[in-house]
Amino acid sequence: MSVAESWSRVMSLLREHAPADHADLPGPATEQMLAAAEERMGISLHGDLRTWLLQNNLDLPQEDVDDDVMCCGFDRFPDEGRFFLGIRAMERLYANHPLSGGDEWRKEWIPFQSDRDGWLGRFIDARDGRLGRWFVGEPTVTGEYASLAHYFDSVAEMLTRIGAGDYPVCSVAEGRLVWS
Fold first, then answer.
1. Would the CA dihedral through 156, 158, 164, 169 be positive or negative?
2. Cα–Cα distances in angstroms (integers) from residue 52 to residues 4, 123, 176, in the given order
3. Do 86 and 29 contact (CB within 8 A), yes or no?
């Protein structure tokens, strides 16, 4: 399955099981936004990342951005404590990653998911599209997922289980994901 198909499946499941959360998500990025971000970051986005951002750029509206935190995003999705980043948030974390400047972070790793402080999250390797994760104070894991599509498939499976009431740490109330 392609990244576009996998993300569409995630969005369909979110719309079905948590329609209020789905309604809060913004529209797509533009090619111009992505090209400008690539220029500022000095790296080309991997094709899967580009495809995903052209479907949904998950940046918060500027008036909702909290300058006192490293990253802002749509809380509660894909889980409690972490959220998908939009292109502005990716740029900011890419430029100011807590692990950068040492041997623990590579310039070809582009974060696409994080917590508010940038202490943990997931990244895509711009060279080959494999996904990894970081947690400050622990070893960085590379190749956790072969692609963004594989990761989105796991998110879709989680949403399917939530919708069936078979995911103990999450339920749905008033159209929103509620994490316990």
1. negative
2. 6, 14, 22
3. yes
CB 135 within 8 A of CB 98: no
Q: What is the DSSP string of the chain?
A: --HHHHHHHHHHHHHHH-HHHHHH------HHHHHHHHHHHTSPPPHHHHHHHTT---PPPGGG--TTSS----TTSEETTEEE--HHHHHHHHHT-TTTTSTT--TTEEEEEE-TTSSEEEEEETTT--EEEEETTS--EEEEESSHHHHHHHHHHHHHHHHTT--TTEEEETTEEEE-
pLDDT tens string, the chain, 180 residues long: the values are 899 999 999 999 999 999 999 988 888 999 999 999 999 999 999 999 999 999 988 776 666 656 665 566 667 678 878 888 888 889 888 988 888 877 788 999 999 998 878 888 999 999 999 999 999 889 999 999 999 999 999 999 999 999 999 999 999 999 999 998
Token code pair at residue 57 = 């750029």
